[in-house]
Amino acid sequence: MTDTPLHAPPGLGPVTEGRLREVGIATIADLRAIGAVEAYRRLKFVMPRQVSQNALYDLEAALRGCGGLDLPLDVRNALQAQSQAIDSALRKGAAARCAI
User: Fold this and answer.
1) What are the distances in angstroms from CA 62 to CA 28, 31, 85, 97?
2) What is d(CA 52, CA 50) in angstroms, rounded to the nearest whole number?
3) pLDDT tens digit string along 45-88?
4) For the residues of 16-73, what is the DSSP string, one character each?
5) What kind of fold does domain 14-99 have according to CATH?
6) Nearest CA to 19 among 9, 1, 48?
7) How far is it, in rounded angstroms, from Cα 36 to Cα 63?
8) How far apart (Å, rounded) are the C-alpha atoms in residues 78 and 87?
9) Where are the domains of the chain?
């Protein structure tokens, strides 16, 4: 299971797989080890405009073995809050760098 490719679970296609590899996540075991939220944080840091909140849903769903639309509402709400916090932190970080 540690070598399972990223495209094996539902919802993770070749584009997502390539993006995850760019941030050092090559297998399901890698993704499971850091979790969906940290994987999303890394993706947003490297490619903020190409990665949407739906990617976070898909990452979590892949770890649970279901599709992103099948996640329970409470899980989706919690992930949405995490996504908003990450997006806010990244915006603050960019503003701080521009102010220097």
Assistant:
1) 9, 9, 22, 34
2) 7
3) 999 999 999 999 999 999 998 888 899 999 999 999 999 999 99
4) HHHHHHHTT--BHHHHHHHHHHHHHHHHHHH-TTT--HHHHHHHHHHHHTS-GGGS-H
5) DNA polymerase; domain 1 (1.10.150)
6) 48
7) 8
8) 14
9) 14-99
